[in-house]
Amino acid sequence: MKILVDNKIPYIHDAICLLTDDVVYLPATEFTSSNVKDADVLIVRTRIKCNKELLEGSKVKFIATATIGFDHIDTEYCKEKGIVWKNAPGCNANSVRQYIQSSFILLEKEYFGSLKGLTLGIVGVGHVGSKIAELAEEFGLNVLLNDPLRCDNEKDFDHHQLIELAELADIITFHVPLSREGKYPTYHLGNDFFFRSLKKKPIIINSSRGEVIDTSSLKKYLDCHVVSQAIIDVWENEPHIDFDLLEKVFLGTPHIAGYSADGKAKATEMSLNAISDYYKLDVNIKIEPPTPSDTQIIAKDKKEALLKIYDPRIDSHNLKSDITQFEYLRSHYGLRREPSAFTIDIQK
Ligand SMILES: NC(=O)c1ccc[n+]([C@@H]2O[C@H](COP(=O)([O-])OP(=O)(O)OC[C@H]3O[C@@H](n4cnc5c(N)ncnc54)[C@H](O)[C@@H]3O)[C@@H](O)[C@H]2O)c1
Ligand SMILES: O=C(O)[C@H](O)[C@H](O)COP(=O)(O)O
């Protein structure tokens, strides 16, 4: 079995030998039709478009993407050709939770004092959105959930229309997959109509996919203060993102909400186990992320400790300093661990 692996997928070298000896690592830009032609399996990230152009005439049978999102896979084409694909559901949901948690702490510091009693609208309540709903309780936020698919399928799901979130929420955060078809497409869910309906000058947070929000609408409504601030991790047209929007936002990061080492290790592990399952290899792989050099955090309170563990202002500063480094900042991302990797020592 020949496996072609995106060479930016970490913690994979030692484990993949348990599946095959025939492994080729390539940068995403070198996943071309001629290079994938004789591979049986691809392990990819969002930067590799798995479509007819790439796959036609190849012997690829299985694609594992070490990501939650799978909008880079042409699922219809794969179905037609009998190519099986698997994403890594929930792999980095805790990492996005960490990103939002630190962002909430910064919103308290810079804007609100406290989030207690404010209303948070969550659009998309899956692996990530559910964790954000739990997190919101810790901050004393009231939560309005929006997920029409869950509403259709679960009779007890407490669904609120997007328009209700627009009218009632102080902060609205997006956690939907990017979809352009179906009953509830998410492409430009945040459009002129949505922004016009806002009543409370909310903060808008997007860590889902850039195309879920119409960039020009968001900029327009930031300019006239209908949106009071934005925290944006994902952008239309990455890596060639909108400079004006980056300048306007409170935090603008290079699509790294899911980039904790914990999330990355889980994604790699899930991808390898998906291949093992597909080929019935009976191999169960476990991958641990690296230990940080210093695991003890001393702080005056828990929120300060959480910001010491991960402060998104650093990622935002790095991107704002040089927008052209968007992809470089992603591919050279430092070791970021989630709070569970540390012991926190509160010293008043
Ligand atoms: N920025 C990052 O680094 C990062 C990391 C992880 C995931 N993501 C993105 O976040 C998305 C969500 O992740 P997840 O793990 O929670 O996915 P998920 O599939 O577990 O949950 C998505 C939820 O969105 C709901 N949904 C679909 N269409 C909707 C619509 N029109 N309106 C409201 N809700 C809708 C679904 O019913 C589902 O419950 C991923 O698809 C991915 O694109 C980004
Ligand atoms: O969908 C996901 O899991 C995230 O967006 C993920 O962090 C994307 O990472 P990439 O594949 O672009 O490195």
From TrEMBL:
Sequence ranges assigned to domain D-isomer specific 2-hydroxyacid dehydrogenase catalytic in this UniProt record = 17-280
One GO biological process term: pyridoxine biosynthetic process
**Species this protein is from:** Bacteroides coprosuis DSM 18011
Record PROSITE patterns? D_2_HYDROXYACID_DH_3 (PS00671)
Give the top-level enzyme category.
Answer: oxidoreductase
Alphabetically ordered keywords of this record: Cytoplasm, NAD, Oxidoreductase, Pyridoxine biosynthesis
Task: Describe the family membership recorded for this protein in Swiss-Prot or TrEMBL.
Answer: Belongs to the D-isomer specific 2-hydroxyacid dehydrogenase family. PdxB subfamily.
Q: What does this protein do?
A: Catalyzes the oxidation of erythronate-4-phosphate to 3-hydroxy-2-oxo-4-phosphonooxybutanoate.
Active site positions:
R209, E238, H255 (proton donor)
Could you cite one Gene Ontology molecular function of this protein? protein dimerization activity
Q: What name is this protein filed under?
A: Erythronate-4-phosphate dehydrogenase
Self-association state and partner proteins as the record states = Homodimer.
Question: Can you tell me which residues bind substrate?
Answer: T46, T67, Y259
Q: Name its cellular compartments.
A: Cytoplasm
Which Gene3D superfamilies does the record associate with it?
A: 3.30.1370.170, NAD(P)-binding Rossmann-like Domain
- Superkingdom: Bacteria
